[in-house]
Design goal:
two-stranded antiparallel ribbon, single chain, eight-stranded antiparallel β-sheet, 157 residues, 17% helix, alpha+beta, 2 helices
């Protein structure tokens, strides 16, 4: 009669581990609200590192996974498409300060798969002034953006 109880305990322990891991996971479809940290100018064919801060939610009592990621940064190589005047992010990573709530359960640097956007459109629209060809665009500091995950991360190896 010892076998059933041992197996039952194993399932309970495994269930607890899954619950703890799932809490740290960020599911696909999650949208991280972002703010541009720097003002940057982009020319055709130019690629440079950009960094966005994950914005804190308006509700101070928000305990969602997105709220836990507030203060982390999303950074990567930005590529500018002059035809659309939009900026895209290649090889994005999420970097969290070690004292962030998410930092304790997620690796300090997590590769992200997803889409940088504003208002649901691919890429972020840049200001390009009067230039008809839009060969140069600029990203304003504190510009709003979002990163929508196509793959979840964390909580599973």
């Amino acid at each position: 009669m010892h076998h059933p109880s041992r197996i039952h305990l194993l399932f309970m322990a495994a269930g607890m581990v899954c619950t703890l891991a799932a809490r740290a996971a960020v599911p696909a479809g999650t949208q991280l609200p972002l703010k541009a940290l720097d003002r940057e100018y982009f020319k055709i064919g130019e690629s440079k590192k950009v960094k966005f801060l994950v914005a804190a939610p308006d509700d101070p009592n928000d305990t969602s996974v997105v709220a836990k990621l507030a203060g982390c940064t999303v950074e990567g190589d930005a590529a500018y498409n002059p035809k659309t005047a939009r900026l895209y992010l290649k090889h994005p990573t999420l970097n969290c300060p070690s004292d962030a709530a998410a930092g304790s359960s997620l690796p300090p640097e997590t590769d992200l798969t997803g889409q940088l956007s504003d208002s649901g459109v691919d890429g972020i629209r840049l200001d390009c002034g009067q230039d008809k060809e839009c060969t140069v665009g600029h990203l304003k500091k504190d510009a709003d953006a979002a990163f929508t995950l196509t793959d979840g991360f964390g909580g599973a190896d």
